[in-house]
Design brief:
The structure holds 2 protein chains of 2 kinds. By secondary structure, chain A is of the alpha+beta class. Chain A has 3 domains: about 110 residues, Butyryl-Coa Dehydrogenase, subunit A, domain 1, CATH 1.10.540.10; about 110 residues, Butyryl-CoA Dehydrogenase, subunit A, domain 2 (Beta Barrel); about 150 residues, Up-down Bundle (Butyryl-CoA Dehydrogenase, subunit A, domain 3), CATH 1.20.140.10. Chain A is about 50% helix and about 15% strand. Chain A has 11 helices and 10 strands. Chain A starts with a helix and ends with a helix. Chain B is an alpha/beta fold. In chain B, α2 crosses α5 and α3 packs across α4. In chain B, the strands form 3 sheets. In chain B, strands 11-10-9-12-8-1-6-7-13 form a 9-stranded mixed β-sheet, sandwiched between helices. In chain B, strands 2-5 form a two-stranded antiparallel sheet. The N and C termini of chain B lie far apart (about 70 Å). Chain B has 2 domains: about 220 residues, HUPs (Rossmann fold, 3-Layer(aba) Sandwich), CATH 3.40.50.620; about 40 residues, no CATH class. The radius of gyration of chain B is 23 Å and the shape is globular. Classes of the chains: A alpha+beta, B alpha/beta. The interface between A and B is medium-sized, with 22 and 17 residues.
């Protein structure tokens, strides 16, 4: 009952506030600040933040449902919310010290401050160990230098978690994570990226040019970068899976509606067995994807390891999103290839879910490693 | 502090549901439930009164156990307490039986209630009767189809839209008002509110026994109406083909339909005929 109400509230919001603008903000690459402002008081930016920091303290399935419902209508806004909650707020909840939590969580949970997560660089994508951004300690500060690319929320973020190379006391290079505010000197943003999908999200590069960060903004311990990165990506994958699932759901609903309306050979195309087969496959795969996603959420809430299942959910939900959106365009025929219909946008938005937060190829690496190293019971 | 009761109802989420042809009732099992839209406006009206001058808001619904959901939604929006009136014997109640039972439940469980708000009508049956009938049961002054409420002291001023004019009426508490969907656009429940509505909700479930309603009494106040037949109204659509040159066809189209179009869009579109 709680999950149903969470879904109906998020759905009502998405259909009322986002549906009328989704196509336009995609076309014009507009980040819808006024809608984002309306989402603040409703806890969209503090989905799983504990009450004492002003969040909604939702369980993981509820949080996934919220992202699903936003993405069902407007994936770019779903992306903003899931990145903020899943990979900016989550690592703070897991690894920040008390004073860091007290300083950063309340404004993040209230949505007054938008978060981003910055690992990717020109030469460090799937190979996260190849980060070249450096952080050198000078007195009570770290000085950061480097360039981060494809930063979701990059154009609007007020706080970004930056992965950078630091030296250990033994002079060994290791990665660490810093909480970097956009107002720190030396923090610069690049132009917004002109991407295939998710165009209403202000994805950009971030330049750190002698960016001075107070030493107390080190997240976790020095050298914790890889640990924080992997834990964060595990959680982020649940978010991307939810996004992909929402896109697939939206595309299927559009295709079903169209198939019932569109007449060819003097009857609705939904009466053709080929179209029925498409719809049956879409619906079956979407339900399987949803159950896999909720399984990962359940494990996470139970405090059990969930990385393997999160990767499975991300891998499967994103491939379902690609297949379903492609079929939805196919069912729409020529109209589906036109911007007049939403499925064209869904089709473009779906592709990146197979790429970011770990490509499908990397998910298979993660899953296979887990299967091969876990004793079979 | 005002003591407000808002009566709310769970209705099917879609309007065109198949029905059981034998009993003439809707197949409610086929649809997910939601809070009736006008009831949501009534909850919003109560929440605005609470924000202005303070109030304790009790939401009351009569329905199956699953109807508890609309109580939780109202609690998430900001109501303080919920009462679910639920008893197998109440299945199939008409508006007369419903208002009798609701009247008893409010009298017993919310003594000293100042104001009762209802949605003006429901999206499933649209009789708009329960509010006024409930006022009769409790012998309260009532105004239906209200679009704005103002309170000063113990006086309630209600503005409502009737046909083509607005009238403003005043009455003293206790009173009953049914709220239309003109104003009081309902707020979204926050996720924190929803979480709280499940973790710390104050919901009381009452059955007929608790309300001291005996089967004999229920029979005496039971449903007086019976649904004889349900049918879908046939829509009167026809396709009209206007042929000829575009300019002539457009002129003919406007000649034939400009009054209808004007009526729909609400302004005159006198055609400027080209000669």
């Amino acid at each position: 009952m709680k999950h149903k109400l969470i879904r109906s509230q998020a759905r009502a919001f998405a259909e009322t506030e986002l549906a009328p603008i989704a196509a336009e903000i995609d076309r014009q690459r507009i980040f819808p600040r006024d809608v984002i402002a309306r989402m603040r008081g409703l806890n969209y930016f503090g989905l799983q933040v504990p009450k004492e920091y002003g969040g909604a303290a939702l369980d993981s399935i509820s949080a996934a449902i919220v992202v699903e419902e936003l993405s069902r209508v407007c994936a770019a806004v779903g992306l903003c919310v899931t990145v903020h909650n899943g990979v900016a707020v989550y690592p703070l909840l897991q690894f920040a010290g008390k004073s860091q939590k007290e300083k950063y969580l309340p404004p993040l949970a209230a949505g007054e401050v938008i978060g981003a997560f910055s690992l990717t660089e020109a030469n460090a994508g799937s190979d996260a160990g190849s980060v070249e951004t450096t952080a050198v300690k000078r007195g009570a500060e770290y000085v950061l230098n480097g360039t981060k690319i494809f930063v979701t929320n990059g154009g609007v973020c007020d706080v970004a978690l930056i992965f950078a190379l630091t030296s250990s006391p033994e002079n060994k290079l290791q990665s660490s994570v810093f909480i970097v505010e956009s107002r720190f000197p030396g923090f610069l943003r690049g132009e917004l990226e002109d991407l295939c999908g998710m165009r209403a999200n202000p994805v950009s590069s971030l330049f750190l040019e002698d960016c001075r960060v107070p030493a107390e903004n080190l997240l976790g311990k020095l050298g914790d970068g890889m640990k924080i990165g992997l834990a964060t990506l595990d959680n982020g994958r649940i978010g991307v899976a939810a996004q992909a699932l929402g896109i697939a759901q939206g595309a299927m609903e559009a295709a079903v509606k169209y198939a019932k309306e569109r007449q060819q050979f003097k009857k609705p195309i939904a009466s053709q067995q080929t179209i029925q087969n498409y719809i049956a496959d879409m619906a079956t795969e979407i339900l399987a994807a949803r159950l896999l996603l909720y399984r990962a959420c359940e494990l996470k809430d139970a405090g059990a390891p969930f990385g393997c299942e999160a990767s499975m959910a991300k891998l499967y939900c994103s491939s379902v999103a690609s297949r379903v959106t492609s079929l939805a365009v196919q069912i729409h025929g020529g109209y589906g290839y036109s911007k007049e219909y939403d499925v064209e946008r869904y089709f473009r938005d779906a592709k990146v879910t197979e790429i970011y937060e770990g490509t499908s190829e990397i998910q298979r690496v993660v899953i296979a490693r887990a299967i091969l190293t876990t004793p079979i019971l | 502090m005002l003591n407000i009761v808002v009566c709310i109802k769970q209705v099917p989420m879609v309007t065109e549901l198949p029905w059981n042809e034998k009993t003439g009732t809707l197949r409610r099992d086929l649809a997910a439930g939601m809070m009736n839209p006008a009831c949501k406006h009534a909850v919003e009206a109560a929440l605005r009164i609470k924000a202005d001058g303070g109030a304790k808001i009790t939401v009351v619904t009569m329905g199956p156990p699953a109807a508890e959901e609309v109580l939780r939604e109202a609690l998430a929006m900001g109501a303080d307490r919920g009462i679910l009136v639920c008893d197998r014997l109440l299945a199939g109640s008409d508006t007369y039986a419903t208002s009798f039972v609701l009247g008893r439940a409010i009298g017993r469980e919310v003594p000293g209630c100042d104001l009762i708000l209802c949605g003006a009508y429901t999206s499933d049956s649209e009789t708009a009767q329960v509010g006024p009938q409930l006022a009769e049961e409790l012998d309260l002054p009532a105004v239906a189809y209200a679009e704005r409420l103002e309170i000063s002291g113990r006086t309630l001023r209600v503005r409502r839209l009737v046909d083509k004019f607005r009238e403003t009426l005043e009455m003293e508490f206790p009173a009953l008002v049914t709220v239309s969907m003109e104003q009081y656009k309902p707020r979204y429940a926050s996720f924190a509110g929803l979480n709280r509505a499940f973790a710390e909700a104050d919901i009381l479930s009452v059955n007929l026994k608790r309300l001291d309603i005996t089967p004999a009494e229920l029979a005496a106040h039971g449903s007086r109406t019976k649904v004889r037949r349900v049918f879908i109204r046939k829509t009167q659509k026809e396709n009209v083909l206007i042929t000829g040159a575009a300019a002539n066809a457009a002129a003919e189209f406007l000649d034939k339909y400009q009054r209808k179009i004007s009526a729909v869009i609400g302004k005159s579109i006198e055609a400027k005929k080209q000669t």
